[in-house]
UniProtKB/TrEMBL annotation:
This is Glucagon receptor. The keyword Signal applies. GO terms for molecular function: glucagon receptor activity; peptide hormone binding. The keyword Ubl conjugation does not apply. Residues 38-121 form the G-protein coupled receptors family 2 profile domain. The lineage of its organism: Eukaryota, Metazoa, Chordata, Craniata, Vertebrata.
């Protein structure tokens, strides 16, 4: 029969992990909200375009500027990602079509390429990032 002290220690570790996981989720959500608000504020400060463009937008992942038709725009990986330090030099890409509309979803796939911003699932030691932004 397992030792009662060992069981208690295991229980404490499991509870600590659950609390840490919940705290991380809360931190990510708060960081995402700050990113969203910062994006919307920045968009509101820029006058509306007079030419045909794909409109500035926040697509729930990244903040996109007004973009000329037939252009692929890149933005830095968003700083709210918990693994941002590992992808901070990466980019997410989005295509503005010839008609001034963002490229639509194709076969249910998202209309952006965020592969450079994804966490390496093989990384055994993820270094989670707490944004410096306030």
């Amino acid at each position: 029969m397992p030792h009662p002290l060992l069981l208690r220690l295991l229980w404490v570790l499991v509870m600590q992990w659950q609390i840490s996981s919940a705290q991380l989720s809360d931190q990510v959500l708060e960081s995402w909200k700050k990113y969203d608000n910062e994006c919307k504020l920045n968009m509101s400060l820029v006058p509306p375009p007079t030419d045909l463009v794909c409109n500035r937008t926040f697509d729930k992942f990244a903040c996109w500027p007004d973009t000329l038709p037939n252009t692929t725009v890149n933005m830095s990986c968003p700083w709210y990602l918990p693994w941002y330090k590992k992808v901070q030099h990466g980019f997410v890409y989005k295509i503005c079509g010839p008609d001034g509309h963002w490229q639509p979803k194709v076969n249910g796939q998202l209309n952006r390429d965020a592969r450079e911003c994804e966490r390496d699932i093989n990384d055994q030691n993820p270094q989670f990032h707490k944004p410096d932004n306030s």
